[in-house]
Design a protein that fits this description.
Blueprint (H helix, E strand, L loop, with lengths): L2 H28 L4 H10 L17 H14 L1 H17 L4 H8 L7 E4 L4 E6 L2 E11 L7 E9 L5 E10 L4 E3 L13 E11 L3 E3 H6 L17 H30 L1 E2 L5 E2 L4 H33 L6 H27 L11 H13 L6 H13 L9
Parallel strand pairs: 1-4, 2-4
Antiparallel strand pairs: 2-3, 3-7, 4-5, 5-8, 6-7, 9-10
Helix pairs in contact: 1-2, 1-3, 3-4, 3-7, 4-7, 7-8, 7-9, 7-10, 8-9, 9-10, 9-11
Length: 392
């Protein structure tokens, strides 16, 4: 991808923001992203940002991708969340066996993949692959995808665990059950995926051991630096980037709200003249900036190392996870600070501030945002204690 390509995608995304803002309540009410929004995102080239050049993608630097996600989430939290999830999956598929990539993109390079990586099912090793059964929750944007990534442990014929993999299945091998009814990220359509004894050929399974070591079969046809990055850096950052975007959206909505707000409880004082309101705005802005600067600095550092063909230090990977969860914490703190200073009218259904507040807190409960686990891993690394976790 050229710099001009990246700028073109970002320009297209920026042009979409006003209409995505207008659709935010419609998206929430529908409990899914409107087809028109997905189509518009596709037309900007957004879904090609992390797709291999081998299959018509841009192989963009990851900071360009996260920047686009942040912009989208600043207009509509649910849209930004789904875009981030669906948008990172072309990168993940680029790590799979070449035949798996051909299976998905051989006839249509615009095919989309949803996911549910938590080990909610069971795979059994059989001749030529695996038999997979289970029910997976929280598959964001699954209504807009025709393939899915599912996580599960693999067991041998005697029932002994032998691996933990991501399995790639076509829509003919699973069904979607509409169960999504939540107070936050309501428009993401994160429904359940149900699989009943489906056969998954071996080339459509990818071991987390391979992704942890950054040595994957897809590198045979995708040798670029993008596909040498750790899953444990790229995917968790995909969760934090939209939350930072939601905080930015809340900030912009709050500042606009405060410009015109008159506080009846304080003798008609204009909020923009309240010195305490200015302090809170400054604090929130600083937290959002800090979260974003750390996330982009760390990811860019890994990417530049990969571009130079250098080893990716484990200490740096631990720092990425440390600052990723810290970035989510900073963004949530900023949203909370803004929301508590917005007054009672901000509680009204349909106002953007309360929607961003709910969406950001819903994103926070994702497993990738558990701060203690990431902090303990970082502390272990600093003290020379072995770190046993594939999501780094």
């Amino acid at each position: 991808m050229t710099d001009q390509d990246g700028r073109g995608v970002l320009a297209g995304v920026r042009e979409l923001l006003p209409v995505l803002r207008e659709r935010a309540q419609e998206t929430e009410d529908a409990r899914r992203i409107p087809d028109e929004s997905i189509k518009s995102l596709q037309e900007t080239g957004f879904f090609k940002l992390l797709q291999p050049k081998t299959f018509g993608g841009y192989e963009a630097d990851p900071v360009t991708f996260y920047t686009a996600v942040k912009l989208l989430a600043s207009a509509c939290g649910s849209t930004g969340w789904v875009a981030s999830i669906l948008g990172v999956h072309p990168w993940h598929l680029g790590l799979f066996e070449p035949q798996a990539q051909q299976d998905v993109w051989g006839e249509d390079v615009d095919v989309r993949i949803s996911s549910s990586y938590a080990p909610m099912g069971k795979a059994t090793v059989v001749d030529g692959g695996y038999r997979l059964t289970g029910r997976w929750s929280f598959s964001s944007g699954c209504d807009h995808a025709t393939w899915v990534f599912l996580g599960a442990p693999a067991f041998d014929a005697e029932g002994r665990p032998v691996d933990f993999c991501t399995y790639l299945l076509p829509i003919s091998d699973y069904r979607i059950e509409d169960v999504w009814d939540t107070v936050g990220l309501s428009g993401t359509g994160s429904n359940d995926i149900i699989v009943e004894d489906a056969f998954v050929p071996a080339h459509r399974a990818l071991s987390f051991q391979a992704t942890s070591k950054c040595r994957t079969p897809g590198q045979r046809i995708n040798p670029g630096p993008l596909f040498k990055l750790p899953y444990g850096s790229v995917h968790p950052s995909t969760i934090t980037a939209p939350i930072i975007g939601m905080a930015q959206g809340a900030y912009e909505a709050h500042v606009e709200h405060q410009r015109n707000r008159v506080r009846a409880a304080y003798m008609g004082e204009q909020s923009k003249e309240d010195p305490f309101a200015k302090v809170r705005v400054a604090e929130a802005a600083s937290e959002i900036d800090a979260a974003w600067l750390q996330l982009t600095r760390n990811i860019d550092e890994l990417y530049q190392l990969a571009c130079r063909g250098e080893k990716l230090p484990f200490a740096t990977r631990l720092r990425v996870r440390r600052d990723q969860v810290r970035g989510t914490e900073r963004a949530i703190a900023a949203v909370d600070r803004l929301f508590e200073n917005s007054g009672g009218r901000a509680l009204k259904r349909g106002t953007p501030i309360q929607r961003f507040w709910r969406d950001a807190h819903a994103g926070r409960v994702h497993a990738a945002n558990d701060p203690e686990r990431a902090y303990i891993m970082y502390g272990n690394g600093e003290f020379g204690v072995p770190v046993e976790n594939a999501i780094v």
